[in-house]
Amino acid sequence: MEEIRSELLGKGEMRQYWDVKLQVERDQGVEMEELYHSRVNELEEEETAQLKWFAESLKEKSSYQLKY
After folding, report:
1. Is residue 38 helix, strand or coil?
2. Angle at 56 between CA 40 and CA 47, to 5 degrees
3. Among 47, 29, 51, residue whose Cα is nearest residue 39
4. Structurally, how many domains does the chain consist of?
């Protein structure tokens, strides 16, 4: 077992295998980070839209109450 391990280490196959695995994980992490920021931006836009709607509704309600 040790002989096989040292042979693989000598060839660099294990190192290459784990380097590839690590790069895949990093790439997935970057994708998740981008997705996270995208969703946060969408939520912020939705919050802004709701606040605008609320302000407009409040104006209309105030205007209506002043008329009557």
Report:
1. helix
2. 10
3. 47
4. 1
Report the run of H or E that residue 4 belongs to, with start and end. Answer: helix 2-11
State phi, psi for 12 to the nearest 5 degrees.
85, 10
Q: What beta strand segments (E) does the chain contain?
A: none
CB-based contacts of 14, cutoff 8 Å, min separation 6: 5, 8
- Residue-wise pLDDT tens for the chain (68 aa)? 788 777 777 778 888 899 999 999 999 999 999 999 999 999 999 999 999 999 999 999 888 787 76
